[in-house]
Write a structure and sequence with these properties.
Largest interface: A-B, 35 and 38 residues
Radius of gyration of chain A: 16 Å
Oligomer: heterodimer
Order of helices and strands of chain A: EEHEEEEHE
Number of strands of chain B: 8
Helix content of chain A: 10-25%
Structural class of chain A: alpha/beta
Helix content of chain B: 40-55%
Order of helices and strands of chain B: HEEEHHHHHEEHHHHHHHHEEEHHHH
CATH class of the largest domain in chain B: Mainly Alpha
CATH superfamily of chain A: NADH:ubiquinone oxidoreductase Nqo5 subunit
CATH superfamily of the largest domain in chain B: Cytochrome-c3 Hydrogenase, chain B
Shape of chain A: globular
Shape of chain B: globular
CATH topology of chain A: Beta Polymerase, domain 2
CATH topology of the largest domain in chain B: Cytochrome-c3 Hydrogenase, chain B
CATH architecture of chain A: 2-Layer Sandwich
Strand order of the largest sheet of chain A: 1-2-5-4-3
CATH architecture of the largest domain in chain B: Orthogonal Bundle
Number of strands of chain A: 7
Distance between the termini of chain A: 47 Å
Largest sheet of chain A: 5 strands, mixed
């Protein structure tokens, strides 16, 4: 698979392994790139948003977006790297409303904040929960064990 | 609803004085029977009309994704069963396919076809539970009994294969857990020969039933554009006219060798979703029949001794098998560094497993994109402006499993 046309200026790096295209994008350009992908390149669907914690290496977090184009029969993975202290990235809800819950989940479980998100609350854990369970420095057995 | 009833359930905290006297907030769930699990809906009502609905999920969050990181790859198969209790084999399959792609091992045709046959039986199982409970929600009691009669036989087939009715873990990385049992073909044949006539029975009870039509036609409409935007997938998308099906578009496990149609409708209401799922049951029955009749011969596991547990008999006679067994069980197998996002068509829609490996024997990160999660996100849009009783029908038409959305 090749890089979709017009995406080159945004791509910091790209790789094609196991038949899946991964494009790394600067976090501040995310929304602009998503707009281009959705409206010009026909990636109609945001399949899922998640994150990977690379603790203790830096930059610590990868926010991963999986897009699908039904018209082109392609999938694409976008990746943004964020540093560990106060990780923040723009919300993709302005492009796909469906990003709402996906980003809430990432916020809840990783503690990554999404700027301009309409409803950034915890979704899985109780509202008064402390910590973010999917971070690598959070013990599998839970806190205080 | 009488005034007296509404007085009982209106929460006492901060009544909205600006709204008229008919306005109230109603908590539906998390223990409401029609929410099929623990979904809580906060409904803002004007009389009986929904002004807004706010789903509250997370009651079934069990930290499965975190648990993956503490298990060997082969151990984690058992976790996948517990995500969606109506489609354990679909989850088994998606996880195994993802890890097999990272390992780059080839699965023999017999295992692939067996996987197709059993995941299609899973689809039947899931759709039967959906149809039975959906009909009960709307008031048609007897359909439930008919559906569970057939579901029981499917669960017995699963038990025959794997020893378990629900938490099967029958698909393993590299193939199947056990060789298919003796006599499976007759058992499946007996079921699949009779099943299409059973679908006719359900349709006799429902399809042209005036009460069923009245409760479902024109209810719960949602436009295709909204669905794509909000992340809704599966039968709901197909009922809105888009023939989106991963089995056709991104065929996995040799689905491209099977002859079947993707069921679609255009009305995008509760009735259209019912029609799509009933047609899907007919198509699944076709696939099961083809798989059963054309089942290839050969081994049921890949030739990858470092990944697949050896046969018990060989362990007693061959030194190498014993060593591999010991190695796999005690320290797992290493998976090369990389990441894949594997998508399959589960009974509820697009199921995705994002597996990240750092080269060790435990997954670095597994993210599960459960179809129910995206589908539930479309709920507020779907029920706005409807009556409370229509919310019940709309919820049923979504066919969500809370374990799948909360994980």
């Amino acid at each position: 698979m090749t890089l979709p046309e017009g995406l080159e200026p945004f791509a910091l790096a790209s790789s094609d392994r196991f038949g899946e295209l991964t494009v790394e994008i600067a976090p501040e350009k995310l929304v602009e790139a998503c707009r281009l992908l959705k409206y010009d390149l026909k990636f109609e669907r945001l399949s899922t948003v998640t994150a990977v914690d690379r603790f203790p290496s830096q930059p610590r977090f990868e926010v991963v977006y999986h897009l699908q184009s039904i018209a082109r029969k392609e999938r694409l993975r976008l990746k943004c790297r964020l540093s560990g202290d106060q990780p923040e990235i723009d919300s993709a809800t302005v492009v796909w409303r469906g990003a709402n819950w996906f980003e809430r989940e990432v916020f809840d479980l990783f503690g990554i904040r999404f700027r301009n998100h309409p409803d950034l609350r915890r979704i899985m854990m109780p509202e008064d929960w402390e910590g973010h369970p999917l971070r690598k420095d959070y013990p599998v057995t839970g806190p205080n064990v | 609803m009488s005034d007296q009833e509404s007085a009982v359930i209106t929460p006492p905290a901060e009544p909205d004085t600006k709204a008229g006297p008919r306005r109230m907030t109603l908590n539906m769930g998390p223990q409401h029977p029609s929410t099929h699990g623990v979904l809580r809906l906060v409904l803002e009502l004007d009389g009986e009309t929904i002004i807004s609905a706010q789903p509250d999920i997370g009651y079934l969050h069990t930290g499965i994704e975190k648990e993956f990181e503490a298990k060997f790859y082969q151990q984690a198969v058992t976790l996948t069963d517990r995500i969606d209790y109506l489609a354990p084999l679909s989850n088994n399959l998606c996880y195994c396919l993802a890890v097999e792609r990272l390992l780059q091992i080839e699965i023999p045709p017999k295992a692939q076809w067996m996987r197709v046959m059993l995941t299609e039986l899973t689809r039947l199982n899931s759709h039967l539970v959906w149809l039975g409970t959906h009909a009960i929600d709307i008031g048609a009691m007897s359909v439930f009994l008919y559906c569970f009669r057939e579901r029981e036989e499917i669960l017995r087939i699963f038990e025959m294969f794997s020893g378990q009715r629900m938490m099967t873990s029958y698909f393993r990385i590299g193939g199947l857990a056990l060789a298919p049992p003796r006599g499976w073909r007759e058992r499946v044949k007996k079921f699949i020969d009779i099943f299409p006539s059973r679908i006719d029975e359900y349709e006799d009870l429902l399809t042209s039933n005036p009460i069923w039509m009245g409760r479902t036609q024109g209810i719960g409409y949602m436009s295709l554009a909204d669905m794509l935007d909000l992340g809704v997938t599966g039968p709901m998308l197909r009922a809105a006219g888009l023939a989106s099906d991963a089995r056709k578009q991104e065929p996995y496990s040799s689905y491209d060798k099977f002859d079947f149609e993707v069921a679609t409708q255009t009305d995008s209401d509760v009735f259209a979703r019912y029609q799509v799922r009933v047609e899907e049951m007919r198509q699944s029955a076709r696939i099961v029949k083809q798989a059963m009749e054309g089942m290839p011969e050969g081994p049921h596991t890949a030739d990858a001794p470092k990944v697949v547990l050896p046969e018990r008999e060989k362990m007693k006679t061959q030194m190498e098998s014993l060593i591999y067994h010991f190695k796999i069980v005690t320290e797992g197998f290493r998976v090369p560094e990389g990441e894949v996002y594997q998508v399959i068509e589960s009974p509820r829609g697009e199921l995705g497993y994002y597996v990240v490996s750092d080269g060790t024997s435990k997954p670095y990160r597994v993210h599960i994109h459960g179809p129910s999660f995206g589908n539930l996100q479309g709920l507020p849009k779907m029920v706005e402006g409807l009556l409370i009783s229509d919310v019940i029908a709309s919820l049923g038409s979504m066919d969500f499993v809370l374990g799948d959305s909360d994980r």
